[in-house]
Amino acid sequence: MLILGIESSCDETAAAVVLGRREILSSVISSQIDIHKEWGGVVPEIASREHLIKIDPIVKEAVKRAGVSFEDIEAIAVTQGPGLVGSLMVGVSYAKALAFGLDVPIVGVNHIEGHFFSVEFENPPTEYPAMALIVSGGHTNLFYSPEAGNYRVVSRTRDDAAGEAFDKVAKMLGLGYPGGPIIEKYALEGNPKAIRFPIAKISDGRPDFSFSGLKTAVMRYLKTEGIEPVGEEEDVSQEIKDVCASFQDTVVRSLTRVLSKLASELKPKTLIVAGGVACNQALRESAESVGRKLDLPVYFPSRHLSTDNAAMIAAAGFYRLSQGEKACLNLSADVTMRLQNVDIEEAELRKKKVRYRL
Ligand code: KG4
Ligand code: ZN
Question: Is the pTM above the cut of 0.85?
Answer without folding.
Answer: yes
